[in-house]
């Protein structure tokens, strides 16, 4: 009881997991959803496809973090004032390297 019968299955499946980061500051809900879709489907997204070709794999937390930071450097999102909050220090080294790449 209390669960929505339909909806985002990826979100629902991971609802019991721990949050690593939160990406926010998108100007509209639509732009946030577009980013989310491109992050989940990097090979299909026109905005991400070329950058995604450099990745060997998209599985695992490390690659998902790297992909998010790579996406934030692309023309579709680089001019937005996006903020990233971290909820875990487990992947601190990866996060620091990804931040350095984004600031270049």
UniProtKB/TrEMBL annotation:
One of the protein's GO biological processes: double-strand break repair via homologous recombination
Cellular-component GO terms for this entry: Slx1-Slx4 complex
Domain of life from the UniProt record: Eukaryota
Molecular function in Gene Ontology: 5'-flap endonuclease activity; crossover junction DNA endonuclease activity
This protein's name: GIY-YIG domain-containing protein
